[in-house]
Amino acid sequence: MPIRPTRSSLLAFALALSPFIANAQLPTLDPAFGSNGVLQVPLAPGLQNAGPGWSGDLVSLSSGAYLALGTAHYWDGFGITAEGVAQKFDACGNPDPSFGVNGLKQYNGGGSWRVMPTHGAELANGSLLLVGTTSTGWGAVSQNRHTTMRVLADGTLDDTYGDAGFIRHDAPDGVSSTYGRDMITLPNGRFLAAAVRSSNANGGSSGLALYGYLPNGEPDLGFGTGGSVQVPKPEFAYMIRTHLVGDTMILVAYGRRFVNTVRMEISAFDLDGDVLTTFGSSGAVLDTTDFFGDNGTINDFQSAVDGEGRLTILGVNAEAEIQLIRFLPNGTRDVSYGANGRVLVQHLGTNIMPTAGQLKVLANGDLLALAHAGTPGNSPTTQWARLTSEGQVLANAIDPWLSYGFQQASAVVELEAGRWLVNAASVFPSGLSIRRFSADAVVLPSISSSGSSLVSTGTGPDFQWYLDGNMINGATSSTFVPASNGSYTVQMTDALGCSVLSEPFQLLNVGVQALDPAAAIVVAGPDAYGMLTVRGEGTITYELLDARGQRLKTGNMASGFGQITMNELASGTYLLVLHAANGRQVFRFFAE
């Protein structure tokens, strides 16, 4: 598999209200994952007139595998319909063949129902609980319902669950739409899902809904009232995020619309769905900071809770600045954070108003913020900002190459320090685009010679050498002293167990008989005209090989002087093997 090297990392710069600390590298694609750092998940074959997809959660499974969720949209002749997408893969980007077809499973909701999963969790028996929305009908007669799906370990729907694998929840009035937005796992093995309730596309006359589920995914009728908590709110926005604080408190962050802006409201509940009146004012906090709110998007904000129970909200203000606001566990603003609890990060894109992509608390306490942005020409772009826990900006950078085709970075998983999986939708081709990024550029293995040794590049940490496809026992360092000619390769394995094999290196000069000095062969060039000059005595047979040992041309040269044209060669390293009556000699040269 040919692998393109990553580009050099760009130095990022910090721009915010908080002081500058240090430059940090922009994350680069990790080419040891998938294909050049990307696991591309196209729509299933047979779907016609495919449109842009949506991406959702990344679920870490107990087996060490991951599940990426999303939605495939396409035109079915009557309107835009949707199928749920689930891709199961390992940390190296290899699809799981036991799940669906090559790790990919798509779901329809039966009849005219469209399926849009957003989040998921693994059940104790290895099955999966997926939450999101199913929709049927169009426009004013459409029905949108918060929905859970139970999926078996091989990706098939569990038809013993609800109605053929689905449980749909109506709003209390039986008319309003409910849109599934989030799900968390509670410490008692139960689950909590959050939904937006809305009677029109602009979010008016609506509220939030919380639904409890038992460890097996069945509705928890002991949660709230009959399994749910319904909280009416005027002018409700699209997004809702739930967090568990200290194993006892559920924080729910959501947006309230005020004309063309959004203000954040936070509510607190215990694990049974009862309001915690000691939080904020009677269990709720309405912040007065305006966020940019777009009626056409659900991505008004993102949020994360750190190890001290502090909630940070990521969004954008009307001036297109990326803003982070932090709250203490009791709901008050953390005035020690930035300026009066707020940190601003300059938006580096143009033309496209940024929207919150994802906010992740890293293992060391830093915050990784991703925003969907744009560059001249409206190219899709992801802006990366990394901040300390106290709001000091370590890096703020943008690069279209890293995120070409991203619609929205919707989920981040930290694999190890400085290495992340990111799930996002892609446009060309339509589907999901799962990418692995590294804070430090990853170098792939490539073999070269140095004196009597073969030397491999590569960030490692582990190496294994092969000769003609056979493993060489004990050859496990980045250098190797060969004892025989042949085709050498080296396999590099990174700290996550992902292996990449180098291109073959053809070695031809071990144990070659020395030529009589009186009949030495001299090679010069190639010259400016692409000609390689050979001088020697007696008839000389030559072979021209590329770096992999593939023969490109052969021929004979008379005694004295001869030339070989190299004009047709691509730029790279080549071998010229010369055979004379008294021996053989190998020359290595580079063609421009």
Through-space gap between termini: 25 Å
Q: Specify Rg, calculated over alpha carbons.
A: 30 Å
Instruction: Find the count of extended strands (DSSP E, 2+ residues).
Output: 44
Please, what is the average pLDDT? 83
Number of helices: 0
Name the poorly predicted regions.
1-23, 513-518
Give a structural overview:
The radius of gyration is 30 Å and the shape is elongated. β40 (540-546) and β41 form a beta hairpin. Among the domains are: 153-300, no CATH class; 447-507, no CATH class; 517-591, Sandwich (Immunoglobulin-like), CATH 2.60.40. Strands 1, 2, 27, 28 and 29 form a five-stranded antiparallel beta sheet that branches. Strands 32, 33, 35, 36 and 37 form a five-stranded antiparallel beta sheet that branches. With 592 residues, it is mainly beta.
In short:
This protein has 592 residues and is mainly β. Mean pLDDT is 83; it is low at 1-23 and 513-518.
